[in-house]
Design a protein that fits this description.
Belongs to the ustYa family. Helices cover about 45% and strands about 10% of the residues. By secondary structure, it is mostly helical. The strands form 3 sheets. It has a two-stranded antiparallel ribbon. A two-stranded antiparallel sheet has the order 2-3. A hairpin with an 8-residue loop joins strand 4 and strand 5. Helix 2 packs across helix 3.
């Protein structure tokens, strides 16, 4: 590597001189990485010093990471508290959820429930063929009855929307000048699920009418809404498998089958529905729809979707 040793050069250790010469003769095999390893092996003091520095650096990095993590957690908690009046109600949900005034009004008290994942269980009302009873049940938990609530301009801003683009509740409703009409998202999602259910019984609900462009657009809109909701809140629970035997299957009749009846930590949907029906909803005003356009109100072109910031699916 070197043609001669510089003045004052002293080998690190006598028994390394031959190794250094061999390195010089062997080209790439005499790399600096190998020499460092050689030094560490023959000079325990240096090896211990390097190890100590490495450990200290890792401790510092770990401490820095923990401080940053705590700052992030504190910022989420501060953000949640700054947007809500009843800070402690649903605090954990507020830290990980988009803004909703309902988180300040309803105790969603998450609890463990077992999902009914049976493949052939038509005892559930939600899986039954159409009937007045079935339709009434679906209408109650979806947007079919137009479950309108009112929100303030502050609620709209915290939700990432512009109050100047939103429809105000008519003054005749008696909610004041800072009241805007809104719906709770879950009921629209269930409405979309109900629309897909109706496709299974098309003749019953649509009397064999042809599927026009609006009908198809409505259904594909619903599919997209549900897909985006699932992708936005991906469920990472696990589905185990059981050995089953079923005569209905072709051979092999004994096979592993996924157990879809899994345990979930569920928000209290019934409390949301109860609040909507007893306290929060103003669907008694649904007979007033369609409302008259107030002169001067902002009008969006086309379908009128005012998109908040963020990347779309």
């Amino acid at each position: 590597m070197f043609s001669s040793k510089p003045n004052g050069y002293r080998p690190i250790q006598d028994d390394t001189t031959q190794d250094a010469k061999s390195d010089s003769d062997s080209g790439k095999r005499g790399s600096s990485a190998r020499r460092c390893l050689h030094i560490a092996q023959h000079r325990p003091g240096i090896s211990i010093a390097i190890l100590a520095l490495f450990l200290v650096a890792n401790v510092i990095l770990f401490a820095y990471s923990m401080v940053n993590l705590q700052n992030i957690q504190n910022s989420h908690e501060t953000d949640a508290k700054s947007r809500y009046l009843h800070h402690e109600l649903n605090l954990d949900l507020k830290k990980t959820s988009s803004y909703s005034l309902l988180l300040d009004l309803i105790d969603l008290k998450p609890s463990i429930k077992i999902i009914n994942g049976a493949l052939r269980d038509n005892t559930s009302l939600w899986r039954m063929a159409p009937s007045p009873e079935v339709d009434a049940a679906w209408d109650r938990i979806s947007a079919e009855d137009l479950q309108i609530i009112t929100v303030s301009s502050s609620d709209i801003v915290k939700s990432g929307k512009d109050p100047s683009h939103s429809v105000k509740a008519p003054s005749s409703w008696g909610f004041g000048n800072d009241a805007y009409i809104a719906q709770v998202e879950v009921f629209h999602q269930i409405h979309c699920l109900n629309e897909l259910r109706k496709e299974l019984f098309y003749d019953y609900y649509y009397h064999n009418a042809p599927r026009n462009e609006l009908h198809i657009s409505h259904k594909t809109h619903c599919i997209h809404i549900l897909l985006q909701s699932l992708m936005c809140n991906p469920d990472v629970g696990i589905i185990t498998h059981n050995w089953i035997y079923d005569e209905k299957y072709s051979d092999p009749k004994t096979r592993p089958f996924p157990d879809f009846s899994v345990a979930k930590k569920c928000r209290d949907f019934d409390s949301i529905l109860r609040w909507l029906e007893e306290d929060g909803g103003v669907k008694k005003f649904s007979s007033k729809f369609p409302m008259e356009y107030p002169p001067g109100a902002f009008v969006l072109p086309g379908d009128g979707y005012s998109v908040a910031g963020g990347k779309a699916f």
